Amino acid sequence: MKEIGHWINGKRVAGTSGRFADVFNPATGEVQAKLALASKAELDAAVAAAAAAQPAWGATNPQRRARVMMKFVDLLNRDMDKLAEALSSEHGKTFPDAKGDIQRGLEVIEYCIGAPQMLKGEFTDSAGPGIDMYSMRQPLGVAAGITPFNFPAMIPLWKMGPALACGNAFILKPSERDPSVPLMLAELMQEAGLPDGVLQVINGDKESVDAILDNPTIAAVGFVGSTPIAEYIYGRGCSNGKRVQCFGGAKNHMIIMPDADLDQAADALVGAGYGAAGERCMAISVAVPVGDETADRLIEKLVPRIEKLKVGPYTAGNDVDYGPVVTAAAKANILKLVQSGVDQGAKLVVDGRDFALQGYESGFFVGPHLFDHVTKDMDIYKKEIFGPVLSTVRAKSYEEAIGLAMDHEYGNGTAIFTRDGDTARDFANRINIGMIGINVPIPVPLAYHTFGGWKKSAFGDLNQHGPDAFRFYTRTKTITSRWPSGIKEGSAFNFKAMD
Q1: Is the Cβ–Cβ distance between 247 and 444 less than 8 Å?
Q2: Rounded to whole angstroms, how far apart are CA atoms 112 and 76?
Q3: What is the DSSP string of 219-232?
Q4: 442/363 Cα distance (integer angstroms)
Q5: Which residues, given as ranges, of the chain have pLDDT below 50?
Q6: What is the per-residue pLDDT across 205-216, written as a single tens digit (0 to 9) for each?
Q7: Which uninterrupted H or E stretch holds 242?
Q8: Are 8 and 200 in contact (CB under 8 A)?
Q9: If you write DSSP's letter for every residue of 179-217 in order, what string do you get?
Q10: Would you state the torsion angle of the CA atoms of residues 18, 52, 195, 241, taken in this order, to the nearest 10 degrees?
Q11: In the chain, at which end, N or C, are there fewer CB atoms within 10 A of the end residue's CB?
Q12: Are β-strands 218-224 and 199-201 bridged in parallel, bridged antiparallel, or unpaired?
């Protein structure tokens, strides 16, 4: 059986800890590889190698670092299908969804090509008599990223791209559930011209995570995953003096006003609620129709759309709407929460509990579920399900609807569907949530804006990608200078073309 190791000093290496984890094919339930889990000693050795490589990379001018990013974009496009195939086989995503995962990461790399502009400092001439003042942005040194299973290409690219463009070395600890694509990305980065040692990929579990958080050489850590782990990483990393940004769970509400185009809203809910089997932090998991008439009409439109969804393996091509969830444990947790919804009195309008796919009975497939008459004291409302389950919470008024989203502990994303501009404007201004869609169901910002939630969905004061990424991965140094008077006549100045 294939064994997957690490990427250290520009090459794949086998693990030495003697510990392994299974990598499954979610469609069949079969183990397809053994993944080496790094020890603390292996992680520390990789960090030491990164620290040795970083000074030369940090001294490389931003334009040359940007050229590596340019070449890397070309290579990502060249190998898009190959990457998507590997991603789908370990995660279970449909092939188009896997390509979308890579594409959204690629867009951040494209943004990083503008590193020379983003890293420019500020200058004040004659801040005082004969005094100039200027600032510069410098890399932190070695940074690390701990990334989740649900976007095995996009989020590693979101983390590594800005960190490397800023001149840092980077340690990536991807999810142990789908590790192949991050290793392939490291190979492509080397082919693009990144020096050996600047990027390391260390596969592992909690032992590796703790080693990252405790290693004194690592100056910054970024994380995406569940809120309990985000809180743990943020607390431990900050206590060790690191700069830390952590993004956690979500419970994204979509409010449907009585004046909304209900066909548009229903289509949006199906795509945002069930796409990628609901395994994304920006999935809409709560529909909030305002008024019983709106709710009844919405449910009437949702049911036939949901019942037509096609669930199957990525190998079925474009005929599949979504694939399996990532593990048997994830499937069991989803079905447990669905049962809790039934037990606590919600109406299960579309029941996917008995879904089975002929020929793939051992796969981790979960049928689509739709609940109505969900209340905010139910577990299916309070908890992040991370599966193909949509809960409908009926609101009597706009104020009640907006209050549901504002009172929830998570604040990642939200949306409103309405034809009324004043309502949409009020919603955008008042809501205490980080990313907002107006007649847009999954409000994921493009690469040149920043991505981040509020409340228990995010920890730290800077977001992912966009300008915030360059702030996170650099330190600002400010210089005040005054030169004594000197002899100006006869001085020779030679200018060399700058590259």
Answers
A1: no
A2: 14
A3: EEEEEES-HHHHHH
A4: 28
A5: 493, 495, 497-498
A6: 999 999 999 999
A7: none
A8: yes
A9: -HHHHHHHHHHHHTTPPTTSEEE---SHHHHHHHHH-TT
A10: 80
A11: C
A12: unpaired
pLDDT of residue 318: 81
Q: What is the largest CA-CA distance in the chain?
A: 90
Model confidence pLDDT, tens digit, residues 286-313? 999 999 999 999 999 999 999 999 999 9
Chain position carrying tokens 């040795």: 52
Q: How far apart are CA 178 and CA 115, in angstroms?
A: 30
Angle between helices 62-78 and 80-91 (to 10 degrees): 70
**Helix, strand, coil percentages, rounded to 5, for the chain:** 40, 25, 35
Crossing angle, helix 180-191 and helix 62-78, to 10 degrees? 130
Nearest to 171 by CA among 65, 58, 46: 46
Q: Specify whether 281 is catalytic.
A: yes
Contact 474, 112 (CB under 8 A): no
46 token code pair: 């990789």
Q: Buried b vs exposed e over 431-447: b needs ≥16 C-beta within 10 Å?
A: bebbbbbeebbbbebeb
DSSP track, 42-109 = HHHHHHHHHHHHHHHHHHS-HHHHHHHHHHHHHHHHHTHHHHHHHHHHHH---HHHHHHHHHHHHHHH
d(CA 89, CA 24): 9
pTM of the model: 0.93
Q: How far apart are CA 436 and CA 434, in angstroms?
A: 7
Exposed, middle or buried: residue 469 (CB in 10 Å: 0-12, 13-18, 19+)?
Answer: buried
